[in-house]
Specification:
The chain is of the alpha+beta class. It has 2 domains: about 160 residues, Butyryl-CoA Dehydrogenase, subunit A, domain 3 (Up-down Bundle), CATH 1.20.140.160; about 120 residues, Nuclear Transport Factor 2, Chain: A. It has 12 helices and 7 strands. Helix 1 runs antiparallel to helix 2 and helix 1 crosses helix 3.
């Protein structure tokens, strides 16, 4: 290793590790933030910091655990920023800082992202790392900088709280798309499904931004190639919907029997034009655990 930083081969190997860990790290970040979308944002920021640090230092001991520690710290920063915007969350921040699945693992797997977000931070981290991702108590303590007794205490309290939350009725029904949102998203889906990509392009703002999550970013006329690529495959069907209460395009794979969407696309409109597209086609892990609602036949309001 030279003083100038890591060799290209080492950096490439590190980036391959990042790609391999994306689904697992997203599961952690999504449950820490209570949102698959916020979880993706937190994870991407963690990756930026990790690559910068690796480029400076050139080598990292136990890079998997190191990446999780960076993601953990980034998630805590996100929750704290959100807590400052919503004083009702402040109490959370001050809280103590293989074989067949166990009952605890089954409980964690069945819990909604919203329920995880209602746990204090240390309890949340401990339950996700131990019961969702399968890390040992010692590994969990290393990632969140807590002692073994502290991890055990957080696990006990977190599991008990998840059981309480699982027994509560969900009194927060998902909102229905407004009339204008419904019309815009339905028109986009209809034109896409009929493969009228010229009509879709007519909906774009001149400086439209595209993010193919985990793959590429484009802007302006470069985005036109995105539609050409969709024209070459037939593993998609678009419907207007919601993810975590936000308007979205839900994408089904017609060849798959399961009724759940394979992934989703976020659209941003301004002045009647499409100014932003965030497509999770190459980041399908983000759909896991997400609250998605197909509103193609639902009433507007």
């Amino acid at each position: 290793m030279t003083e100038a930083g890591p060799e290209a081969a080492d950096l490439a190997q590190f980036e391959r590790l990042i790609a391999e860990l994306r689904p697992k790290l997203h599961r952690y970040c999504a449950r820490m933030t209570g949102s698959v979308i916020d979880g993706e944002d937190v994870m991407q920021q963690a990756f930026v910091k990790a690559v910068e640090a690796f480029s400076r230092e050139g080598s990292v001991a136990q890079p998997r655990g190191w990446l999780f520690r960076i993601a953990h710290n980034e998630a805590i920063d996100f929750v704290r920023r959100r807590a400052r915007q919503d004083a009702s969350h402040a109490a959370e921040i001050s809280d103590m800082i293989d074989p067949a699945p166990t009952p605890e693992e089954q409980l964690a797997a069945a819990s909604s992202l919203r329920n995880f977000a209602r746990l204090p931070i240390v309890q949340r981290s401990a339950v996700i790392l131990k019961d969702v991702l399968g890390y040992s108590i010692e590994e969990t303590g290393s990632i969140i900088s807590a002692s073994v007794p502290a991890v055990k205490a957080a696990l006990h309290r977190g599991r008990a709280r998840l059981r309480e939350l699982a027994g509560e009725l969900d009194d927060q029904p998902s909102p229905i798309l407004s009339g204008p949102d419904r019309a815009r998203f339905a028109a986009y889906a209809e034109r896409f499904n009929s493969r009228d990509f010229n009509a879709v392009r007519d909906m774009l703002a001149e400086d439209v931004r595209l993010e193919l999550v985990a793959r590429a970013r484009m802007r302006g006329r470069e985005v036109h190639n995105y539609f050409a690529n969709y024209a070459t495959v037939d593993d998609w069907r678009f419907v207007p919907g919601q993810i975590e209460g936000r308007p979205a395009i839900l994408v089904y794979d017609p060849s798959e029997p399961q009724p759940r969407p394979a992934y989703f696309i976020l659209l941003e409109w301004e002045g009647g034009k499409l100014v932003g597209i965030r497509d999770f086609r190459h980041a399908r892990y983000a759909a896991e655990g997400a609250e998605m609602v197909d509103v193609s036949s639902s009433p507007t309001r």
